[in-house]
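thought: fold this chain, then report.
action: predict
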Amino acid sequence: MLVAIARQGTLIGAASELHLTQPAVTKSIKELEAQLGVQLLVRSGSGVRFTDYGETLLHSARLVTAEIERAERAIAQMKSATPSTLKIGLSLLSATVPVYAALSRFRARWPQTQLEIMEGMPRQIIDSLRNGEFDLCLAFIADSDSIAEFAFIPLARWPQRLMYSGAMTDSSLPELAHSQWLWNHTIESWLPFWRHLSAGETLAPPAQMTLCTSWTIYRQLALEPKTVSIWPDFLLHGDNAPKTLTPLPQALPEITLGFMVRRDHVFNRVTEHFIECVKAELK
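observation:
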């Protein structure tokens, strides 16, 4: 009712929109004001305006209305026979896990669902998810990454390893700080990572740090002499694993693969099944 009043600007207009009488709307508002013990509306000959109390309640009412509308759309989509669309964002690193096998499994169950799959850098993925261009995003999240605005569905967790290219006589962190470093997450997470790594030591971050989220180029840069790089453990095994890198003794925080979704996202059977398909391929 408050949303209708705000939209129409008058009690008469709101009553018409809600298919009620004006006295019924007025009575409901008075009862709500009595219940809360505050005045919500100021009435005048030209209409009504909301008090500060009313504005606060209106904000919450709009959120509730939006959630109900999203739920209704989701239910209508589930009941509809028309093909739905699932928009998926992939971080560059997450494309190294068996996403293709999960997609094949998903399409066998939902052949009429139109898939839109876009790969991008972490910042692009986050911005597109925030703007509603993706329904969900599959990404690797480090403990130093900030994603509080999104809901996160963890799928798997792996250790990370610090690796070095070239001859090495001193593997201490002060000595390594003079090397070239490679980083494959967001630029905002670099300093928190370094502070975690150098805990107990007062060390300035390496002067030479290259941010690279392309794993094709990252692999090549990691092989350059005197380069320190960070690797998820699962990429250090198999036929495509780098064979000439030396593991370093420093312990690193683990990295988590999971789905990021907006907190207002309403899940349907299509979205839930795709998540289950990825989970199945990771077992």
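thought: worth noting. The chain has three domains: 2-79, 85-158+257-282, 160-253.
final: tokens above.
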